[in-house]
Amino acid sequence: MTVRRAWPATILFLVAGCHRVTAPASAVRMSDPATANQLISGFYGVEGGAGDNAWRWTGPDFALGLAPPASSPHGARLLLRLYFPETQIQKLGPMTLTASVDGQPLAPETFDKSGSYDYVRDVPACLLDTNVLPVSFSLDPYSPKTETEGRDLGAVVSMAALVAK
Q: What's the burial of 146, exposed, middle or buried (CB within 10 Å: 0-12/13-18/19+)?
């Protein structure tokens, strides 16, 4: 007997909020207001312009809900597109990203150079039997808020998605 946590129902409630949600998306671009309600916690406002050039800073811990891809009998791939500025890596050194999908940990990745990266991990098909899949991330170390920057900063994120394998 498999026992599923109440996470998906909780996330659907959080995602819906006061807005009518017809169906959650498998891909969330940080600039897209239609999917912004899938950002659960740890994301700051949109920066950097519009469209594919827009991004959001995250805090050290951030989470979102993603819909499993429509056809995914062999599982899916989680993709997080992120960026680390040179000043942040110089100040903090290597940064490790950890992630979990519906509470199941995924392999961490350490970034020791500035630049753009894709964090990609396989998600087993047995986790995809839900409407919304909770995905949580954590960065260590991170930039704690200062007088000039009033936010704890993790990474710059432009997109997150679950895609069929």
A: exposed
Task: Give residue-wise pLDDT tens across range 11-36.
Answer: 444 444 544 555 899 999 999 999 99
CB-CB neighbours of 145 under 10 Å: 12
Give residue-wise pLDDT tens across range 37-49: 999 999 999 998 7
* 7-143+150-164: CATH topology: Jelly Rolls (2.60.120)
Return the structure tokens found at 138.
């954590």
Burial of 61 (0-12, 13-18, 19+ CB in 10 A): middle
- Cα-flanking dihedrals φ and ψ of residue 140, to 5°? -145, 125
pTM of the model: 0.86
Pairwise CA distance, residues 146 & 142, whole Å:
12
Instruction: Tell whether omega for the bond before 144 is within 30 degrees of 0, i.e. cis.
Output: no
Write b or e for each residue in 108-144: b if 16 or more Cβ atoms lie within 10 A of its Cβ, otherwise e: ebebeeeeebebebebeeebbebebbbbbbbbeebbe
Of the candidates 154, 79, 75, 161, the one whose C-alpha atom is nearest the C-alpha of residue 119 is 79
Q: Residue holding tokens 């110089």?
A: 90
Q: Where are the domains of the chain?
A: 7-143+150-164
